[in-house]
Every structure is written in structure tokens, then in C-alpha cells.
């Protein structure tokens, strides 16, 4: 009886195996340089002791001193932080509630509601900005001759309208892996709907809430187009202020202000990732103790 030779099946290489090949490594290096070299150049030239960015004439901190002593720039940065903070809080609450409703309930028009939430994500910002301008100026039922004041309140409402769908998408993706039997077990043990939401569901979606909050804060902090259409003459945000400064010339003071914003964003990102990692580690220890 002849033996049948079986050829070993070739296992396709995993993603890490592709990274070991030099064409992929060259591609990754090129993409990294394309993304970060402009930011690094901006940060380097913020220390340039010259009014012209293209010529390096020495190292100095004077443009940071000017940026930190510029009252209008500080006020614009404060406005951006306040707007981003309130927009993030409201977006996380509304986005999480929308995600839970879409995940848990069935109701007429659910598909249309789900599709409508994606509109702010795919619609160009210029359309959103013009739409918000028309909404605040013409649509709201204000008395004749009056309209909604274009101040921080209008900007916060506009930012929430395009930030909360991003939070809803992130939370909905997290809820897709939730075991509904945990809710049923909590209710069997006497927990109410509220206690089940607080003690079972929220700990599960906490990482997505942090990620959604970080995304919403970043989108709100660096938004220019929608803010430009909804800001009044007395309400200037940091991106709008930078734009007004760049229209004349790109000076090291502009680079210094932009570098400060980049550093703040990176620090907030690091803090959010740290908190998210700590919560995941705590959850892992809790799960291990529960299994024991």
C-alpha cells in the first residue's frame, strides 16, 4: 500500500510578519515623516530668533514670552478651552445615551435616526457652518429684529452637533461586544434598571467614553470652519485668532502659540490613555478575582 504524501499547508503571514519586510518598513517611515516633520519643523522654528521663519538665526524663548503675554491670544485660548470642555461634557452624555438607545431598543424610524446621526460626520464642515449660521439667524423663532447671540453658547451648541455622533459611534462599537447576560444576572440579583446601568453597563463602556471624550475635545479645540460661522465679533477662539495672525505673516510667535496648543493636546492625550490603561488594569484584576 503506497503512502500518500500530504503537503503542509502554507500559513499566510500575519500583520507583524509584513512589518519585517523592507518595503513596508520604508513605507511606514515615509508616512511617519510625512505626518510629523511639519509639526516638528513648526516647533523647532518657534525658537528661532528671527522674524522670518525660513532663516535660522539663533535660539530664543522671546516669542513664547510674547505669546504668553499677548492678552488677546490668551483670551482666545481660554475661549477655546471653555468651549471644548462644555462641548465634550455634553457630547459624551448625549452620544452615550444615543448609542445605548440604538443598541438596546427597537422603535419606528430607528434606521433613519441611525443614518441621520452619521450626517455630521460625512457632511463637509463648510456646509455645517453655513447651516448653523442660517439656523441661528433665521430658523429660531426669535422676535422680529432679534436673533440668537453669536457668542460662546452658539459655538458650544454647534460643536456638540458635530461632536456627539463621533462619541456615539465609539460607544456603539464598544457595546457590540457586551454580554447581555450580565445585565440579566444583575436584575436577577435585585438590581434596578438604574443600578444595572451604573454598576454593569457604564464600567464596560468606560474606555469608549474616555476615547469619545478625547475625540470630541480634540475636534472642538481645533475646529475653525464651523466656529468661524457661529462666532461673533466679541468671541474669538484660538484657531480663529491664529488664522487672523497668519493672514499677515507666519511669525515665530504664531509657531510658539501653535506649539503650546500641540503640547497641551499631547499631554491631555497621554493623560487620557493613562487613565484608560489604569481602568483596564483594574477591570482585569477584578475579573480575575471574580473567576477565583
How would you summarize this macromolecular structure in one to three sentences?
This protein is mainly α and about 290 residues long. The chain contains 13 helices and no strands.
Helix content: over 70%
- The number of strands is 0
* Average pLDDT level: 79
Total separate domains: 2
Write the CATH fold name of the largest domain. MetI-like fold
Determine the number of helices (DSSP H or I, runs of at least 4 residues): 13
The largest sheet, given as strand count, sense and whether it forms a barrel, is: none
Question: Low-confidence runs (pLDDT<50, min 5 residues)?
Answer: 286-292
Rg on CA atoms, Å: 25 Å
The CATH superfamily of the largest domain is MetI-like
Briefly note the structural class of the backbone: mainly alpha
Give the SSE order as H and E letters: HHHHHHHHHHHHH
In CATH, what is the class of the largest domain?
Mainly Alpha
User: Which architecture of the largest domain would the CATH scheme give at its second level?
Assistant: Orthogonal Bundle
| Ends distance | 54 Å
Shape from CA axes?
globular
Q: Which oligomeric form is depicted?
A: single chain
Strand content: under 5%
State the main characteristics.
disordered C terminus; 2 domains; mainly alpha; 292 residues; MetI-like fold; 13 helices
Question: What do these coordinates show?
Answer:
This protein is mainly α. The chain folds into 2 domains: 2-45, no CATH class; 65-290, MetI-like fold, CATH 1.10.3720.10. It contains 13 helices and no strands. The protein has helices at 15-19, 22-45, 62-69, 71-104, 110-117, 119-122, 125-139, 152-175, 180-188, 193-221, 225-230, 238-246, 252-291. α2 (22-45) packs across α13 (252-291). The radius of gyration is 25 Å and the shape is globular. The termini are far apart. The model is unreliable at 286-292 (pLDDT under 50).
Amino acid at each position: 500500500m503506497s503512502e500518500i504524501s500530504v503537503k503542509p499547508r502554507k500559513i499566510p503571514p500575519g500583520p507583524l510578519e509584513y512589518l519585517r519586510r523592507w518595503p513596508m518598513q520604508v513605507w511606514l517611515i515615509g508616512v511617519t515623516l510625512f505626518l510629523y516633520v511639519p509639526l516638528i519643523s513648526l516647533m523647532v522654528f518657534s525658537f528661532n530668533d528671527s522674524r522670518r521663519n525660513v532663516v535660522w538665526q539663533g535660539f530664543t524663548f522671546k516669542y513664547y514670552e510674547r505669546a504668553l503675554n499677548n492678552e488677546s491670544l490668551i483670551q482666545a485660548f481660554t475661549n477655546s478651552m471653555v468651549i471644548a470642555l462644555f462641548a465634550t461634557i455634553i457630547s459624551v452624555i448625549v452620544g452615550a445615551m444615543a448609542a445605548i438607545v440604538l443598541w438596546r431598543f427597537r422603535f419606528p424610524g430607528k434606521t433613519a435616526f441611525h443614518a441621520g446621526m452619521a450626517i455630521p460626520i460625512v457632511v463637509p464642515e463648510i456646509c455645517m457652518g453655513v447651516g448653523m449660521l442660517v439656523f441661528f439667524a433665521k430658523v429660531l423663532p426669535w422676535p422680529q429684529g432679534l436673533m440668537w447671540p453669536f457668542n460662546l453658547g452658539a459655538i458650544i451648541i454647534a460643536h456638540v452637533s458635530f461632536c456627539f455622533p463621533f462619541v456615539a459611534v465609539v460607544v456603539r462599537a464598544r457595546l457590540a461586544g457586551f454580554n447581555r447576560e450580565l445585565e440579566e444576572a444583575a436584575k436577577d440579583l435585585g438590581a434596578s434598571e438604574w443600578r444595572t446601568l451604573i454598576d454593569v453597563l457604564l464600567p464596560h463602556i468606560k474606555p469608549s467614553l474616555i476615547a469619545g471624550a478625547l475625540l470630541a475635545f480634540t475636534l472642538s479645540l481645533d475646529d475653525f470652519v464651523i466656529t468661524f460661522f457661529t462666532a461673533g465679533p466679541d468671541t474669538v477662539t484660538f484657531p480663529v485668532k491664529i488664522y487672523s495672525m497668519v493672514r499677515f505673516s507666519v511669525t515665530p510667535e504664531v509657531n510658539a502659540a501653535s506649539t503650546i496648543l500641540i503640547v497641551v493636546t499631547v499631554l491631555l492625550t497621554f493623560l487620557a490613555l493613562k487613565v484608560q490603561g489604569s481602568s483596564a488594569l483594574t477591570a482585569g484584576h477584578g475579573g480575575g478575582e471574580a473567576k477565583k
